[in-house]
Amino acid sequence: MKTRLLSAADPDAPAIAADIIKSGGLVAIPTETVYGLGANGLDEQAVLKIFEAKGRPQDNPLILHISGPEQIEQFCHHIPQAAYDLAEAFWPGPLTMVLPAKDVVPRRTTAGLDTVGIRCPDSPVTREIIRLAGVPIAAPSANISGKPSTTTAEHVLHDHDGRIDAIVDGGPCRVGVESTIVDLTERRPRLLRPGGIGPEQLISVLGDLVVDKAVTAQVDKDAVVKAPGMKYRHYAPTEPVVIVSGSRENAAAYIRAHFEPGDRVLCFEEELPLYDGCNPLSYGREADVNTLSAGLFAALRELDDPKIHQVYARCPVGGGVAYAVQNRLKKAAAFHIVDAEEEI
Ligand code: AMP
Ligand code: MG
User: Fold this and answer.
1) Sheet strands side by side (includes 264-267)
2) Residue pLDDT, tens place only, 89-144
3) How far apart are CA 21 and CA 131, in angstroms?
């Protein structure tokens, strides 16, 4: 199969992409979070192709992308007021809500669950594709399963050239980490995955939030979890990653003391001078956490090289989108963290 590269700036792109979706094909779509690998979310055969292309376990559900909040009721029932309040505050945007699924949503899309993750993305071209296709687009991140997510069309081409029908190139993703996921099917709202909408923002609307333990700790691979995707190794380059926390100076002292040839350092731009001779790679500025979230996955992809022995990573502190960056880096590091303050 030849993978067609479409530019989001091409006025014909939405109609071409929508036709592929309608005929059961796969299109990589740009969103503000990461690139998604999209198919008709109501078509079991089309959805199956997503799992095959990614090598994704069948028990890992997909997110249904819709063109606006007015579509929630087509695919979900028993919708609490909180869902409308969150949609009003954060859609279109990087927030997925888990709600009870109507029967029209195939269990292939929800990985057998009777709930569905639903989101309205903040990308005009992608919303136009959904509108023209006339169906919701099921899409997980467009990376090969287990690898860092795709935040440029080049990343998608690298993983799927010749295996999917088309890629719509909308440039690098603005947020750069996947959507925040909040489960609204229990008595209390539960954060299943941090993302572009911070926990504080959710609490400002919901007045309450439980943080699922999969967000803060390693989940056993045999565990029964609320968000099945969370138990799989994620975002990980091939070599081991260790997060070194603590002050700039103490972390640099620890890393420089342990650094061996073939290792790499993933750090903030402000820290580059501290790692002269250690082959450092910056993923953004600590002073602007949005540059860190936007740059993280591209950097993890660059570090996905079997010749590298070990990566020492620096991680931002704080809430908002920094909380999501911490979560992705901790998962990439399989929660392996060294505190430089204790080691010095
Ligand atoms: P990805 O976009 O690749 O991160 O995959 C979508 C993720 O959304 C999955 O891995 C799940 O963690 C989450 N998800 C989607 N639907 C549900 C659902 N019904 N219940 C819980 N989590 C969900
Ligand atoms: Mg993913």
Assistant:
1) 280-282, 264-267, 311-313, 241-245, 337-339
2) 999 999 999 999 999 999 999 999 999 999 999 999 999 999 999 999 999 999 99
3) 11
Task: From residue 343, give the alpha-carbon distance in Å to each of 266, 330, 336.
Answer: 19, 19, 15
| 3-class DSSP assignment, residue 125 | helix
Taking the centre of ligand 1 as the mean of its atom positions, its distance from the CA of residue 117, in whole angstroms, is 6
Amino acid residing at 23:
S
- Residues written for the chain: 344
CB distance 336 to 242 below 8 Å: yes
Question: What type of residue sits at position 178?
Answer: E
Contact between 269 and 289 under an 8 Å Cβ cutoff? The reply is no
**Pocket perturbation via mutation, ligand 1, pick of 29, 35, 60 by most ligand atoms within 8 A of CB:** 60
Q: Scanning the structure block, which residue is given the tokens 């079997």?
A: 306
The ligand placed nearest to the CA atom of residue 234 is 2
Matching residue, tokens 């796969």: 26
pLDDT tens figures, 275-290: 999 999 999 999 999 9
